[in-house]
Structure formats: structure tokens, C-alpha cells
Amino acid sequence: MVSDDTVSAARLLVDCLRVQGCDRVFTVPGESFLPVLDALHDCGDVDLVTCRQEGGAAFMACADGAMTGKPGVAFVTRGPGATNASIGVHVAHQDSQPMILFVGDVGREMRDREGFQEVDFSAFFGPISKWAARIDDAARIPEYVARAWSVAIAGRPGPVVLALPEDMLSDMVSAMPRPPVSRPAQPLCPDAMQALDAMIADAASPIAIIGGAGWNAKARDHFAEWAERLGLPVATAFRRQDAIPPSSPVYAGNLGYGPNPKLLDRVRNADLVIAVGARLGEATTDGYTIPTPDHPGQLLVHIHPDPEELGRVYRTDLAICADMAEFAESAALWADGSLIPFDAGAEAHAEWEEWATPKPADFALDLASCVGFMRETLPSDAIVCNGAGNFSGWWHRYWRYDGFPTQLAPTAGAMGYGVPAAVAAARRFPERTVVALAGDGDFLMNGQELATAIQHGCDMLVILVDNGAYGTIRMHQEREFPGRVSGTELANPDFAALARAYGCWAERIETTEAFEAALTDAKGRIGVRLLHCVIEVEQLAASGATVSGLRARKR
């Protein structure tokens, strides 16, 4: 018997998400959670974005969490749907971004029989999520949703996975949503700030490495204020280039793949390294070498919101567990007037300016010059999204990530992220310019989400760099086995024609001059616009690496 004060489990689930602040859901529909789709039918305040592959939906949810600081939400079906979506969960985990993935599951009576598309989701997602669980009792949905939201945003943010037995979703219950949860306050300990102040006063060549877990606009502004007052050189961790304004007089550039060699020397020679928010992962530290985990001759201060990250890999001389914005605000207000500002901040910024200024090269379509023209043409707060591949290096080096957020790029190095992330950005910030960057191999991993972009009226620009190869792997191949090309060549479609088939405006581009003309044209249009940029495979990387150059080194 159903009473007037009962609702379906699916309706309760949707109501719990709305109370927590969920206003958008990314999905590929499945029969295992049809009651949830039905409940969303009546929720005009929740934007339901229908995607074309679960990997794209999960990437969109991950990107949405990165932009808002609250969990991005995706719903997928069991088995193939969940395994397809696992790539987005992995990226959210390694990128420290809040996300909740709901997976429609086999009915409770089918569990542990290897029913149709059955997977043990707690075991499958456990290693790549903060929490993976299954809701068997509909009355506990408010508890599970509130806990999932809390776990996703607390400490080091990350993904949560909840499995939903399909029969459970039709149960009738009288439970009510729990109140909204918020990230726990993590103020900075004054004693820790005093100790840090003393270490800076004793340092001759300090440097900060910033960006990562829980970083936001407040942390960005306050940290820049503090670093500029000290003259402290500030490098951003891999693909965290919007963590400080590029115009800051102490910005020293980005670490990761293909950084400024002078910046690497500066980190290598620093006597004090202050890591704020960054995990100091493999990409940021060049394989745990700059700095090394034991960093002899250097002092390391590590500031992170999750105590489990402190001392996990690196020997830490001063560990501070604090929220990034709380730390940055306290530092900006700290009375450190006795310190003499360092000259190193301005010196490091000048080195970055020289490194980040495009120098034309002798290629028909010169990507460095193209990025330089983009800087002159597009708004400085454009949101630039990319997946993995050498193509991204030109933007990492030459683009200025002004405003926050302006960089959506997976630190996990996953291909296929750029187009889905751009869809999420276009839905979240329809008034801003959104650019998706993709290589030819990268694009074809999730390029079908152009259909999602068209269906949902997204306004976004796609720049597709086509060199007929898996360029990053080709570069490593030429370095290790010069001239022995194996498995890295690609036969590609006419990407401009493909984009037009989806309903996009598109142009094929083969010269720098044509790029400038097409970008100018695209800027004056709305909707989804794609520039198919055909380059020579010889132009391997923004560092200047070429096929002929790598082969010559082995002779």
C-alpha cells in the first residue's frame, strides 16, 4: 500500500541531489535506471545532458566538478556503461576533482549470479575512487547521497561511485532528503604559518609550486597577493596553469612535460620548495627527480587539505594540513613586513615571458604562431580544454590562462577529454568563449560528443590538429628507434566534412595565414565551429623536437 507521504526511491534520489545543489546531470540512458530518468522528467531545474558514450559523459562530469568545486554528476548503466565511464572516474581521481558516478545495477535478487552485465562495482572502482558502494535499502538513499557528496568534496576532492539496483529504484519510501553538506573548514594553524615565515626568512632561493586539490578563485587571488609581496617565484603544477594570473609579476611558468629548462634549473637549485595544493606527482616533478622525494640540500614545505597526502611520497620538513583558500587568505594577511622581498620572482617571470613568446618557425602551418594569433583574437578568459597529446604543448607553452577557471586538461593524461570538457564548459559558462583542443588521435576517442554539443546548443570552438600520427608516441619512437615507424601512423577522415555532417561550421586549414583568416571568421559565428588544422608530422612538439632532429641524434 502506498501512502500520501511516500515517494519512489528514484524520486527521492533526484530530490536528494537537488537539495545538495546538483543542477546538471550527464548521462547515457540505460534500462537499469529508467525510474531515475522518469523522475528527472519533472525537474526543470536539473539540466539533463544526453551524451553519446559513457566515457564522454564521465569526462563531462569530471570537468563540471573542476569548474564548480562541487561534484559533477553522471548516470550510466551497468557493465559496459560503467566500464566505459571508468576512464572519467580515473581522471577525477588523479586530478583531485569532485564527481559522483551513479551506476544502474542488476536487481538485488540477481546479485552474485553473474547476471546480465553484472560487475562487482565496489571491487572494480575501489582503487580509483574515494568511495564505491551500493544502495540496497531505498530508505538509506538520503544517507548515501549526503555521504557521497561530503566524501567527494572533503580533503583531497575526488570521485565517488554508487551502484543502484534497478529493482530498488521502484521501491516506495517515506524518507526525506538530508540538508546540504559543505566542505569542512580547515583553517591554517598560526604556529605553522609562523614556522613557514621563519623558513622563508632564512631562504636564499625559494620557489613555490601551486595548484591542485581544492584550488579555487579565492586561493588564486590571495596566494598571488602573498607571493607578489614576497617576490616569491611561483610555478604551477602540471596542467594547473590558471592557479595564478599569468600577468602576476612572480609567475615563473608551468611544470610538467616540455617546461622551460630555466624553470627546471630554478626548482633544482632552490633551497626551499613550497608546494601548495600540488601532490608533486610524476609529471610535475619530471619523474620524481625535480625535486627528488628526499631532496637533499633542500627544505620542503607541503601544504595540502588531505593529511594522507602529506609525507606520502616526499620527505616533508614542514607539513601543513589546511584548505587552500584558508591558507592563501591567512598568508595574504600575515604580518611579514620584516622580510626583504626576493628579486627572484621578477627574474623568473622575465624568463617565462621570453620562453612563452612565440617565435615563428619554418612550417606551412606554424602552431606557435597560431597560438600567438589566438592570444590577440580571443578573450583572455577563454576556457581552453584539451586531452592528451603533443599538440597541447603549444598551448601550455604559449597560451595565457587568464581568469579562473580557464584550463580544463587531465593531469592523468587521458586522451579524448577535450571535446567532452568543452561541452561541459559551454553548458556551465554559456557567456564565455570555450575552446576544445584535440589531436587527430585524441579527437577520434570522443569526437562523437560533437553530436551532444549540437543537440544541446553549445557555443564552442574546436581546434583539431591533424598530423596523421599518434604524435607523442611517434616522438618517443623516433627517440628510441629512429626511422622504424611502427603502429603510430594514422589514416584519418576528412575532419571538416565530418564536423559538417554533425551540423558544425568547419574549415580545413593548411597554412598559418589560412588559420588566422578562419579563426577570425569563426569568432564572428555562434554554435559549434571546427578548424581542421593539417600539419606536418615533422613538427613534433612545442619544445622544438622534430622527426629529422631526433633521427640525427642517433647517428
Structural shape: globular
Biggest β-sheet description: 6 strands, parallel
Strands side by side in the biggest sheet: 3-2-4-5-7-6
Radius of gyration: 24 Å
Summarize the structure in words.
The protein has 555 residues and is of the alpha/beta class. It folds into 3 domains: 7-173, 3-Layer(aba) Sandwich (Rossmann fold), CATH 3.40.50; 190-353, Rossmann fold (3-Layer(aba) Sandwich), CATH 3.40.50; 357-553, Rossmann fold, CATH 3.40.50. The chain is 37% helix and 17% strand. The protein is built from 20 helices and 20 strands. It has helices at residues 9-20, 34-41, 54-68, 80-95, 121-125, 141-153, 190-202, 217-230, 261-269, 324-333, 344-355, 367-377, 392-398, 418-428, 440-443, 450-455, 471-480, 495-502, 512-523, 547-553, and strands at residues 7-8, 24-27, 47-50, 72-76, 99-105, 131-134, 159-165, 172-173, 206-210, 234-236, 251-254, 272-276, 299-304, 318-321, 383-386, 407-408, 434-439, 460-466, 505-509, 528-534. The protein has a 6-stranded parallel beta sheet, with helices on both faces. It has a 6-stranded parallel beta sheet with strand order 11-10-9-12-13-14, with helices on both faces. Strands 16-15-17-18-20-19 form a 6-stranded parallel beta sheet, sandwiched between helices. Helix 6 (141-153) links the parallel strand 6 (131-134) and strand 7 (159-165). Helix 8 (217-230) packs parallel to helix 10 (324-333). The chain is globular, with a radius of gyration of 24 Å. The termini are far apart. 54% of the residues are buried.
